[in-house]
């Protein structure tokens, strides 16, 4: 199969996958609110999927490096995600504890799939990393369209009808994935060397420091998807307002994913991450200050300089830091640390702080995360630049 054809398949996979991801995640918090769950209960539910995400990333990375296969892991995970998201939004899981399990599985797989698809694409061939950013722009388009259409779909068929759409599209994605080749086969290293190199992965100071900064930055992205939406609900935002908030940020990611490779020809990826940390700090100051849903939607436009930069530059920096035969483990370990860790800690922490001190004060506290991330990125400047 030609590189061009593989790109085309992944454009469809990303667009459709992120369509259901955006529709599901943008409606998860409002759905739980409609069922009468408090901010703290919603925080526990959102954190629950991080535990599974961490376990899955580690397990999938190990299996992929051992078997040199990732296609079937992604395909199966996509089907299970579609099934559990259907169960959650159709209100089949009628008690809080069942909902907690459903959100853990669906959310854990959603976060895992965002990384698994990227690692699968990169793993097909060494030249694929040059096309990652344009591929990601199709994911942003899908997320934006899914978020935007969710308000219309919700008004027409409700959460139950939406759950059916999520399931059907997920099955279609599985069909497209069936046509794409697996990751490239490489000669295995012997088991003893594998263990030594794997230990070296966690003794690599630059790698660990990078993970720490990514954890802090992604923690703010998690708050943006949770507590910021809670603030919009407190300000009497409509379903359309919330959909616009998600869609605005996602659509703006499209030109960002196109421009990031151009920027990296002139600016080192690490410097771009520093810019992203600064913008995240400014964004959360504004989130805490503004007091209308429309202004929150406007502040969300700064996502142009946050999520795309974090997701693309992190993978490219890790490629430069880690031995080739451990790339799958290194990438998925990083995702489990900063995506899984951020998703685990922040909903509970933010929910607890918001309950005690208020939403705005919690958003101001989050600014310190951006400052700490910038500091850590500065510490690794001399080692990988």
Q: Describe it for me?
A:
The chain has 385 residues and is mainly α. Helices cover 83% and strands 0% of the residues. The protein contains 15 helices and no strands. It has helices at residues 3-34, 39-67, 71-89, 96-123, 132-177, 191-203, 205-225, 227-234, 239-264, 269-289, 293-299, 307-321, 327-357, 359-379, 381-384. Helix 2 (39-67) packs antiparallel against helix 13 (327-357) and helix 10 packs antiparallel against helix 12. The radius of gyration is 20 Å and the shape is globular. Residues 187-196 have low confidence and may be disordered.
Provide key terms for this protein:
385 residues; mainly alpha; 0% strand; globular
Number of helices: 15
- What ranges have pLDDT less than 50 throughout 5 or more consecutive residues? 187-196
Compute the gyration radius: what is it?
A: 20 Å
**Can you summarize the main beta sheet?**
none
Set down the secondary structure blueprint:
Blueprint: H1 3-34, H2 39-67, H3 71-89, H4 96-123, H5 132-177, H6 191-203, H7 205-225, H8 227-234, H9 239-264, H10 269-289, H11 293-299, H12 307-321, H13 327-357, H14 359-379, H15 381-384
Summarize the structure.
It contains 15 helices and no strands. It is mostly helical.
